[in-house]
Every structure is written in structure tokens, then in C-alpha cells.
Specification:
- By secondary structure, this protein is of the alpha+beta class.
- It folds into two domains: about 5-70 and about 175-355, Zn peptidases (Aminopeptidase); about 70-160, Peptidase M42, domain 2 (Elongation Factor Tu (Ef-tu), domain 3), CATH 2.40.30.
- About 30% of the residues lie in helices and about 25% in strands.
- The protein has helices at about 5-15, 25-35, 125, 145-150, 180-195, 215-225, 270-280, 300, 330-345, 350-355; strands at about 40, 45-50, 60-65, 70-75, 80-85, 100-105, 105-115, 135-140, 155-160, 165, 170-175, 200-210, 230-235, 260, 290, 310-320, 325-330.
- The strands form two sheets. Strands 1, 2, 3, 10, 11, 12, 13, 14, 15, 16 and 17 form an eleven-stranded mixed beta sheet that branches. A six-stranded antiparallel beta sheet has the order 5-4-9-6-7-8.
- A hairpin with a 5-residue loop joins strand 10 and strand 11 (about 170-175).
- It starts with a helix and ends with a helix.
């Protein structure tokens, strides 16, 4: 099994898997994880890889959502243009002229997101943000009937097109769907590392579905696993770019894993949080405190599952969230893998029980 980071991330980001249509990502992950543990799925489609260490308990859930933001065909105009619905949180301003693929039953169809050009806008329209409902996708069809002959149907998923790219500095990687195939890649590498090392627990590596449309897969997966503690693996915002005041930069690429202290969906278990920080210090892994009032993760529902689950979010810093392409540093990614592996190795029954004493 080739666990080279470049290959792993290229394979995972190359899968087209918007919310509700995660099959391609699930198949890629299953190929990588079949040697790491026992595979199963819940009835919503989340993939679960069970790996028993030296003890059955505690049960540790490592969760990363495998869906990406995308679109769905809503209808086709008489002129053959596709009107669409967003799957996940898109900012309409980043969409015009971007390439997409319509995933039909007959195969993918390339298209371009279109909008009225500024030359044809009124002065008032030019001052307003683009409305999502005013955008459309041009697939080169001349009529609704021709688009239907191409195979397009309402309900077909639509995905962004962006080629995985190693930038001039080979530590920097650009790709689509880093949110959250980066977390899925961390999950994969951690499970393979733990397979070779001792861990005093049973780990459930869980790739969840439909996070971007309401954390839906996390509900069912957490109920299925019934974990004693959970680590949610994410990519989180790096805002170290022009336009942000230095004092307002809360996350930088190249500064290591992001440990979430607060977001609108969860305040982490304090003792669990302290274990992660202590482990990073002992292992000489740089880390960043991530405390924001926006965004959320699967932890928002996992920590409330059943009678409660001590949870923490550990993230890879990624620039340009919820757009066609993000950028991350391989060094940050590898440090997240190392930190999560070492934390899991410390999570025996006494430690996990201590989280809630």
C-alpha cells in the first residue's frame, strides 16, 4: 500500500463526492483502509474502520467527513442552461467562470458557471453581490432537449474541477476538496501507523457523510460506534494572507496543527484538550490554538451523542476555504498525523475515564 502523502492526497481529492454523493470517496478510502482494520458502513453511508489495539476499551473515534461542497442540478432552461442548488456553503462571488463537471448516469459532462457580465448590468446590479439563483452552468447545449440527450437530469450532482498541483515550493500543495479529504488522509495515515504500533484501546476510523449540509453523517456514525472519546480530524482556516490585519491572523500555515479551543458548535472537554497540548509539547510538535466564532465540525454533534462524548478537533491549516481550490503545507499535515498518533497511544482506559471524573 502506497501511503506517500502526495499520492494519497491526489487520490482522495481526485474523487468527486459532494454531500449525499460520497460513493467515489468512500471507495478510495476503503481501498486504503482495508489493510488497517475491519470495514463496515452505517445506513447513511459513513465508512467505519475498526482497529483493535491491546484492549477492547476505551473506544476511540477518529472522524473525518468525506463529502465536499458541490451543487445539484435543479432544472434545465429552455435554452439548455443548467440552474443549480448549492450543496454546502458557497460564496457566490467566487463562482463565475469556474469549471465544473455534471456527474450524469452516462458519465461526466464539463461545464462553466456563467453569469451576466458587468457590461450588461445596471449600476445598481454592479454594486450588489451576485445572487446564487442568477448563476447558471453552460454545458454547450442549445436547448433543454439537447441537454437531456447529453444525459443531464434534475438531481445530478455537480462538482468543481481543479487539478491537484504541487506548487513551486514542493511543501505547498493545491487541490480541491481539502475540506475535508485532508482530514481523511490524516485518518488513513494514523490508522496505518497505529497498526504497526501499540495502542491501549480500540480505534474506529470513521469517514462521515453529509457534513457540509448539517453534520448528518456524524449523527448516525457516532450512534453506531458509541465512542468513549472522539478526535475530529479537519482542515481549518488559515487566514495568513493579504487583507487581514496582523493582529487578526489566528492561524498560519507552517505553524503546525490547529487545536480547537472554541467554535460555535463545541467547547472541547478541558482535560482532553490539555492532554493534546501536553502531548504536542512532549513530542516537540508545534501547534496553534484555534478559537473562533464561525464555522463548525462533526464534533458539534458527536460530543452530544448518547450521554456525551469527550471530543476535540485537530486540524490542518488550509487557505481559501469553500472555493474551487485550497492550499496546505505538507509539513503541517505530517505534524497532524504525528500528533494524533501520539495522543491515541496515550488514551488508555484510565486516561479516558479521567476526562469525565
Amino acid at each position: 500500500m502506497n501511503l506517500d502523502t502526495y499520492t494519497l492526497l491526489k487520490d482522495l481529492t481526485g474523487a468527486d463526492a459532494p454531500s449525499g454523493y460520497e460513493k467515489e470517496a468512500r471507495e478510495v478510502l476503503a481501498g486504503y483502509l482495508k489493510a488497517a482494520g475491519e470495514l463496515s458502513t452505517d445506513k447513511l453511508g459513513s465508512l467505519i474502520c475498526r482497529q483493535q489495539g491491546s484492549a477492547v476499551a476505551p473506544k476511540i473515534m477518529l472522524a473525518a467527513h468525506m463529502d465536499e461542497i458541490g451543487f445539484m442540478v435543479k432544472n434545465i432552461t429552455s435554452g439548455g442552461f443548467i440552474k443549480f442548488l448549492p450543496l454546502g456553503g458557497w460564496f457566490s462571488q467566487v463562482l463565475p467562470a469556474k469549471r465544473v463537471k455534471v456527474k450524469t448516469a452516462r458519465g461526466p459532462i464539463p461545464g462553466v458557471i456563467g453569469s451576466k457580465p458587468p457590461h450588461l448590468m445596471t449600476a445598481g446590479e454592479q454594486k450588489k453581490p451576485l445572487a446564487m439563483e442568477d448563476l447558471f452552468i453552460d454545458i454547450g447545449a442549445g436547448s433543454r432537449k439537447e441537454a437531456e440527450r447529453f444525459g443531464v437530469r434534475p438531481g445530478d450532482p455537480i462538482v468543481p474541477v481543479f487539478e491537484f498541483t504541487v506548487l513551486k515550493n514542493p511543501d505547498l500543495l493545491a487541490g480541491k476538496a481539502f475540506d475535508n479529504r485532508a482530514g481523511c488522509a490524516v485518518l488513513t495515515k494514523v490508522l496505518h501507523k497505529l497498526k504497526k504500533e501499540k495502542h491501549p484501546n480500540t480505534v474506529y476510523g470513521t469517514a462521515t457523510v453529509q457534513e457540509e449540509v448539517g453534520l448528518r453523517g456524524a449523527h448516525t456514525a457516532a450512534f453506531e460506534v458509541a465512542p468513549d472519546a472522539a478526535i475530529i480530524l479537519e482542515c481549518r482556516i488559515a487566514n495568513d494572507f493579504p487583507g487581514v490585519d496582523a493582529q487578526d491572523i489566528y492561524s498560519r500555515m507552517g505553524k503546525g496543527p490547529q487545536i480547537t479551543f472554541h467554535d460555535p458548535g463545541m467547547i472541547p472537554n478541558r482535560k482532553f484538550r490539555d492532554l493534546v497540548v501536553k502531548t504536542a509539547k512532549e513530542e516537540n510538535i508545534p501547534c496553534q490554538i484555534y478559537a473562533v466564532n464561525t464555522g463548525g465540525t462533526d464534533a458539534g454533534v458527536v460530543h452530544k451523542s448518547r450521554s456525551g462524548v469527550p471530543s476535540i478537533v485537530i486540524g490542518v491549516p488550509v487557505r481559501y476555504f469553500h472555493s474551487h481550490a485550497g492550499i496546505l503545507r505538507r509539513s503541517d499535515f505530517e505534524q497532524v498525523v504525528s500528533l494524533v498518533t501520539e495522543v491515541v497511544k496515550r488514551m488508555d482506559d484510565a486516561v479516558v475515564s479521567g476526562f469525565t471524573e
